[in-house]
Design brief:
The structure holds two protein chains of two kinds. By secondary structure, chain A is an alpha/beta fold. Chain A has ten helices and twelve strands. The longest helix of chain A has 15 residues, at about 100-115. By secondary structure, chain B is an alpha/beta fold. Chain B has helices at about 5-25, 25-30, 30-40, 60, 75-80, 105-110, 125-130, 140-150, 385-390, 395-410, 410-415, 420-435, and strands spanning about 65-70, 95-100, 100-105, 115-120, 155-160, 170-175, 180-190, 195-205, 210-220, 225-235, 240-250, 255-265, 265-275, 280-290, 295-305, 310-320, 325-335, 340-350, 355-365, 370-380. In chain B, strands 1, 4, 5, 7, 9, 11, 13, 15, 17 and 19 form a ten-stranded mixed sheet that branches. A ten-stranded mixed sheet of chain B has the order 3-2-6-8-10-12-14-16-18-20. In chain B, strand 2 (about 95-100) and strand 3 (about 100-105) form a beta hairpin. Chain B is globular and about 65 Å long. Classes of the chains: A alpha/beta, B alpha/beta. The interface of A and B includes residues 81, 82 and 94 of A.
Chain lengths: ~260, ~450
Amino acid sequence: MSDDILLEVKDLRAKVEDKEILKGINLTIRPGEVHAIMGPNGSGKSTLSSVLAGNPAFTVTGGEAVFHGVDLLSLSPEDRSHEGLFLSFQYPVEIPGVSMVNFMRAAVNAKREYFHEPPMSASDFLKLMRQKRAVVDLDNKLASRSVNEGFSGGEKKRNEIFQMAVLEPRLAILDETDSGLDIDALRVVAGGVNKLKTDRNATIVITHYQRLLDYIKPDFVHVLYKGRIVRTGGPELALELEERGYDWIKEEEDKKHKEE
Amino acid sequence: MTMSSLKQYTDLFRQERVALDGNAPAALNAGRDRAMVFLTAAGSLPVKSDEGYEKTSIDEMFAPDYGVNVNRVNFPVNVAESFRCDVPNITTLLAVVVNDRFVPTTTLMKNLPEGVTVCSLRDADSALLGRWLGKTVESEDAALAFNSLLLQDGVFIHVAKGVKIPKAIQIVDIFSGQTPLLAPRRVLLVAEDGAEISVLKCDHTQTPGVEFASSEVIEIFAGEGAKVDWYDLEESSPATSRWCQFRCRQEAGSSLNICAATLTNGKTRNEYLIDVVGDHCETRLSGMAIGSGTQHIDNSSRLTHRSDRSNSDQLFKYVLDDNATGAFEGLIEVSRGARFNEAYQSNRNLLASTGARMHTKPQLLIYNDDVKCSHGATTGQLDSAALFYMRSRGIPLAEARKMLMQAFMVDVIEKIRLDSLRDRLRHLLELRFSGSCGDAACATCRNRADRQV
């Protein structure tokens, strides 16, 4: 861990259509850290990841996000990726007719172009694919198929972590990566994430359940409720939530707001 | 009321009848009077108020003052050869049609297998012409009549009984000239019982600034057990209009696979009349249309099952950008007493801009109980979830859009049964969606002199 700040989110507000979902998010992430964001359904967890990744379906209405000195919110989704942000999707999108190989080649070469590097040679690219597939034990057969098309739930999530391995992000956001995974797949996926962890990159793990955090150990746990982070603590907070549920937090927060 | 553009052509016909007849064999001339009667009765080329032409006025397409090459001016063939569509490893069996004149190549003549004829309609066997020309499908209509009125040359392909041609035959249609020109073009393909043949035809424009129009009729007879593949690639200029009608007849156990791609064009109206008259036939009819600028592409099909136990499958896909317009009207007809047929039809379209328009009209006419039929049409935009997913991996928006548009056409490309043509078309699509295969004649097909001649 270092004193450098990788991501600084200040009073971030966002809406979808006319509904405000994020109502002032503050978050500081340093290299080497793992942050877990938990919270009940509809609290804004996935919105936060979408907004950080630049999903055009959401509108930022206030606040800022500075990513290693860069104004993140002013960048296109593709440039956020080039700058080192990666979102592992809760529901990876199927793209019929676009092969995994072409998809990854386009992604790798776009990043190289962004940094004024020539496209990767075919042999280097194949080597890279082979190497990174090993991280999550991804079947070579999937490489020739269309992106996520006909993949099982587990294969889709492995595929996300495979892409993360290829793109080597500085900050990875794992949005409900545990959903739809059986325990074996969860172990492989979490193992992949841990292999990719260094003291220079950071991870945000968005999850409902404590289970994933047994495999990916967080340094900080945040609870998101009604578009705000209402609690921050260490790994013990996740265990407490597992035991007591979210209702006690909801009650306390709702009471606080009534008093205000 | 403005006068129909038909008049300039019927006037021309009256004035030049002697010359036209002098330029063509008896079998071609035999159709003229009947065509004239039909057109005179119609009074006009089809307009938008005519059923089936709601989105394309043929009358307007042919309104410019096009000339017809009655004097048989020769366009130098070496220029024409430079337009050979570069589809590597496909074929050496190449013929060129310059405007409306058939020009064989020496390699074609040298390499034609035994039992295969590819020649000018003027040199074709008169008995075969008399039997088939204009008679593959029993339907008199404007497209056939207009083509027959001024027809002077064309391509004749005959494959004798049981002869299978391993290589594809390629026909390159080229427009060339300095003044607006109408080219009546005809192909008659007769595949006798058990014959097998693949044909690739490409349409090009050499002088993109000049207005051209083609009236094309492609007649295909597939005898019992015959297998015919026809691939049609249009890469013409924005100043080119094309009215192309396929007239196909399938005998028992035959297989017909037509796949047509409109990559660049001006205005195009393609009509597909397919009569399945024998039992146990297989018919695949597919098309892709890529429109940008003000391109207009209209495909209209009428597939008639007149027999038992056949299956047919139609698939048409459009990607329209800018202010391009597209139309599709597809009809499956299952005749009374035609039993146990399976017939499917699908039209799917992508609109890549707010200015693009698509009109679609799928139809079924079923006069029999024992059938399996379905049809469907969808028109939508690029999948925003897929676009965001790709962008989140660093793929720039423009590239992501291009990849999705190409991906959309994958299942049409898969209908092509020639590996090298599939690869080539994938490549052409990539160029097309990158904007480098644009308004002029396709750059990939230009300046590639055919060294085989």
